[in-house]
């Protein structure tokens, strides 16, 4: 099973559990970075979009999609409008996203899914770090 297949199996487990990861993910994110909450003008719209875009980027990396690098650069550029965002904050959000998936899937989450999501999370963090250097 390749990373994409393992990741899709993990997403299917989340779907079967019927859990929306967005509320738990952002509860954690705002608990760790409370100063960021005021930057969200439309909390409901932004949190869902950020979560989906993060998931899509990791899946895109797993399938070697051509658009991922440009998309990540654009995400980083757009976030510059909110001030200097430290790499640790980006990394924490990416890790929290994977953790939220695992928790939502419960017993349906496999070691293969976890390893695949973590590998792509590391790739995404490296790509974000490179984009923040410009």
From TrEMBL:
<keyword id="KW-0561">Oxygen transport</keyword>
<keyword id="KW-0479">Metal-binding</keyword>
<dbReference type="InterPro" id="IPR009050">
    <property type="entry name" value="Globin-like_sf"/>
</dbReference>
<keyword id="KW-0349">Heme</keyword>
<comment type="similarity">
    <text>Belongs to the globin family.</text>
</comment>
<dbReference type="GO" id="GO:0019825">
    <property type="term" value="F:oxygen binding"/>
</dbReference>
<dbReference type="GO" id="GO:0020037">
    <property type="term" value="F:heme binding"/>
</dbReference>
<keyword id="KW-0408">Iron</keyword>
<protein>
    <submittedName>
        <fullName>Globin</fullName>
    </submittedName>
</protein>
<dbReference type="GO" id="GO:0005344">
    <property type="term" value="F:oxygen carrier activity"/>
</dbReference>
<dbReference type="InterPro" id="IPR000971">
    <property type="entry name" value="Globin"/>
</dbReference>
<keyword id="KW-0813">Transport</keyword>
<feature type="domain" description="Globin">
    <location>
        <begin position="25"/>
        <end position="122"/>
    </location>
</feature>
<dbReference type="InterPro" id="IPR044399">
    <property type="entry name" value="Mb-like_M"/>
</dbReference>
<dbReference type="InterPro" id="IPR012292">
    <property type="entry name" value="Globin/Proto"/>
</dbReference>
<dbReference type="Pfam" id="PF00042">
    <property type="entry name" value="Globin"/>
</dbReference>
């Amino acid at each position: 099973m390749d990373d994409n297949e393992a990741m899709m199996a993990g997403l299917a487990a989340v779907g079967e559990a019927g859990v929306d990861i967005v509320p738990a993910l952002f509860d954690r994110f705002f608990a760790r970075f409370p100063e960021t909450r005021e930057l969200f003008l439309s909390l409901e719209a932004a949190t869902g979009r950020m979560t989906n875009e993060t998931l899509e980027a990791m899946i895109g990396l797993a399938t070697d999609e051509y658009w991922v690098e440009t998309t990540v650069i654009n995400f980083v550029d757009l976030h510059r409008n909110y001030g200097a965002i430290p790499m640790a904050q980006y990394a924490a959000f990416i890790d929290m996203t994977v953790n939220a998936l695992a928790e939502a899937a419960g017993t349906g989450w496999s070691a293969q899914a976890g390893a695949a999501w973590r590998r792509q999370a590391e790739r995404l963090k490296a790509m974000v770090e490179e984009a923040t250097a410009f």
